Amino acid sequence: MQRGWVVSTEYRSIIEKVKAVRLSLDVSQRELARRLGKPPSFVNKIELLERRMDILEFVQIAEALGMSAEQLIAAVATSLKKE
């Protein structure tokens, strides 16, 4: 699918870290979507970089994973520093 926006390396890293956290918690895309009250395609499209995640969605995803947004941001920041 052709995207209408450019995916930066940093944004790609953010999405990869959010996905890694989800997987480490053994939460499926379907389960995360259920917790968010969204269709499974919502999570899938974000992880495939077909849909851009905004800051409000980031906060909601963190909370649905049982974390604060601050904790998830810290995890993302740590992974970005390693790159």
Structure, described:
The chain is an all-alpha fold. It has a single domain (9-82), classed as Orthogonal Bundle (434 Repressor (Amino-terminal Domain)). 67% of the residues lie in helices and 0% in strands. Helix 2 (29-36) crosses helix 3. The mean pLDDT is 92.
CATH fold description: 434 Repressor (Amino-terminal Domain)
CATH architecture: Orthogonal Bundle
As a percent range, the share of helical residues equals: 55-70%
Strand content: under 5%
N-to-C SSE string, H for helix and E for strand:
HHHHH
**Tally of separate domains:** 1
| Number of strand segments | 0
Within CATH, the superfamily carries the name: lambda repressor-like DNA-binding domains
CATH class membership: Mainly Alpha
Question: Summary?
Answer:
The protein has helices at residues 9-24, 29-36, 40-47, 55-64, 69-82. The protein has 83 residues and is an all-alpha fold. The mean pLDDT is 92.
How do the strands and helices of this protein lay out in sequence?
Layout: H1 9-24, H2 29-36, H3 40-47, H4 55-64, H5 69-82
Helix pairs in contact: 1-5, 2-3
Question: Top keywords for this entry?
Answer:
mainly alpha, 434 Repressor (Amino-terminal Domain), single chain, globular, 83 residues
